[in-house]
Structure formats: structure tokens, C-alpha cells
Amino acid sequence: MIKAKKKFGQNFLKDESIKKKIIQSMPKDDDLVIEIGPGLGDLTKELLHARKRVTAFEIDLELCGYLQKSFNSEIKEKRLRLICTDVLKVWERGFLSEEKYHLVANLPYYIATNIILRALEDIKCRSILVMIQKEVAEKFSAKSGDKSFSALSILANSISKTEILFDVDKDSFDPPPKVVSSVLKIEKLKEFIDKELFCDQKELEDFKHFLRAAFGQPRKTLLKNLQTLFDKNALLKQFELFEIPSNARPHQLEISKYHLLFKNRDHLS
Ligand code: SAM
User: Fold this and answer.
1) Is the CB of 57 under 6 A from ligand 1?
2) Atom of ligand 1 lying closest to residue 115 CA
3) Low-confidence ranges of the chain (pLDDT < 50)
4) What is the pLDDT of residue 194?
5) Of 170, 193, 216, which closes a domain?
């Protein structure tokens, strides 16, 4: 009997109906599926049953040994590739895969945000379907005016379509986590995949830098926050041009206005 290890964020999904709902929510094409953290292989089994080709990254060597035995024939038939390593280290070195893929995972909560951010920026990754803390799912999917609307929501919704599909009760896991979870679906926009949006990594990095400044002090006005990067008078002119109230707080602004300000940043210095 393998015991769940806290340090690897292990909460195994036990509810059969939730596993089925996750599989049903996946894109119907036959692109590669990457699973992060297969654990005891419950979701992996469903994926293979749905005739998906799967590459799975698992950090825990004890679980890896168990998975190698349980999926011996699927590995031999090359329907499953099991890579026993820290997925974040692979991303640090480059891509998870040479071919385009869909990411699916019941993510370890301690690195969930980090993994989603990596996958968002990974051009090979076409969609993301993950189970994460409800609070984190809300941050990624929040719309302008929502309490959780943040730099993270703007980044995610600038390059993809985000949607919380359903919540999952603590009792669906063994051991149960401390918080309620949600299944979040993220579909990359065609314009991002085709590099019409953020055509190079530098532009994306600049946009992230701009957003960090905009939300630097979320309770202060956007005008005040952006003054850490730009000239106040130039900002006031652009605010007037784009009909942005000078007393607007960062979470009140539509995403399209952030895009306008960013695109015209040359006029702000
Ligand atoms: N997919 C299984 C399930 O649904 O029951 C397990 C999910 S459990 C929440 C998270 C899994 O991610 C564990 O198997 C854990 O060992 C693995 N994991 C944690 N950190 C990882 C990392 N950096 N790279 C790859 N796998 C990781």
C-alpha cells in the first residue's frame, strides 16, 4: 500500500464520476495528452481507456515504480510514455513535447499556479484541463470587476478562454485536501497559437511586467500604480483618450483597455 506524501501534494482522486466528467470535458481530437502527476494512475487509466496517447510526468520515484508495473503493456505498446522527473525542471530546459498537446491533471496544489503559468506560455500546449484549489481557479478565470480579478486573470484571458467547469468536494479525494477544488478549462486562442498576439517572448515578458506594475498595490488607483513605470501627464492623456477614469482601481478596468494602454506604451514615457 503506497502512502500519500504531503511534500509532493498528493491527494488521490477517488470519485469515479468526477474522473468520467474530466474525460468527457477533454477536446475530442487525437492530439497527444500530457498528464502531470499521474499518482496511482486512476486518471491515466481513464485516458487510455478513451484511446488517448499519453505522456505522463511523475516526480515520486516510488509511484513511478508502481506505475511502470501497472501499465507495463501500455508502455510497451507506446500508448503511454512515463517520465519520472520533476516537470518544472523539464520546462526550465525547454518544451515538454515537440508536438502539440493538451494538458490534463489533478495538480499538486503547492505548484499549481506555477504549472498553469508555464503551460499558458507554452505554445505547444493547446488546452489545459486541471483540478486545482477553487480560489486559484477563480483567480485565473475572473472577469473585470470581480473580486479576484488580477494580473493573472488578465494574462490568462489575453491568450486564452478560461472557464470553471465544476467544483469538486474534499471527500472525492484520499486523503481529503483542506480546501474545495474546481476543474478549470483553458483553451488557447488561435491568435496566440498563430503568434499574431505576443509575437515574441520579449513582448509577453513586457506585458507581464506592465501588469505587475498595474496591480502593484491593488487598492490604489491604476494611475498611481502605473506611475512606477510611466510619466503621470502622459498617462493622464492616454487615460482621457481611452476614456479611463483617473480614479479607476486596477480590478475595475476591462481587459481591452489594458491592451490599449500596453499597445500604446511608447506614448507613455
Ligand atoms: N493524478 C493523480 C490523481 O488524480 O489521483 C494524483 C494527483 S496528486 C494531487 C498530484 C501528483 O503530482 C502526485 O502524484 C505527485 O507525486 C505529482 N507531482 C508533484 N509534484 C510534481 C512535479 N514537480 N512534477 C511531476 N509530478 C509531480
Assistant:
1) yes
2) 23
3) none
4) 87
5) 193
Residue 41 in contact with ligand 1 by CB distance below 6 A:
no
Q: According to the model, what pLDDT value does residue 265 have?
A: 93
> Per the structure block, which three cell numbers stand in for 3?
502512502
Q: Is the CB of 88 under 6 A from ligand 1?
A: yes
> Do 109 and 48 lie in a common domain?
yes
Residue 172: its pLDDT value, please?
97
pLDDT at 30: 92
Burial code (b: 16+ CB inside 10 Å, e: under 16) for 161-196 equals ebebbeebeeebbeeeeeeebbbbbbebeeebbeee
pLDDT in tens, 118-171: 999 999 999 999 999 999 999 999 999 998 999 999 999 999 999 999 999 999
The reply to whether ligand 1 has any atom less than 6 angstroms from the CB of 112 is: no
Q: Kindly report the pTM of this predicted structure.
A: 0.95
What does residue 33 show for φ and ψ, rounded to 5 degrees?
-115, 130
Contact between 21 and 104 under an 8 Å Cβ cutoff? The reply is: no
Ligand 1 centre from 37 Cα, in Å?
3
Structural domain harbouring 143: 6-193
Q: What is the CA radius of gyration of the chain?
A: 21
Shared domain check, 236 and 109: no
Are the C-beta atoms of residues 172 and 178 closer than 8 Å to each other? no
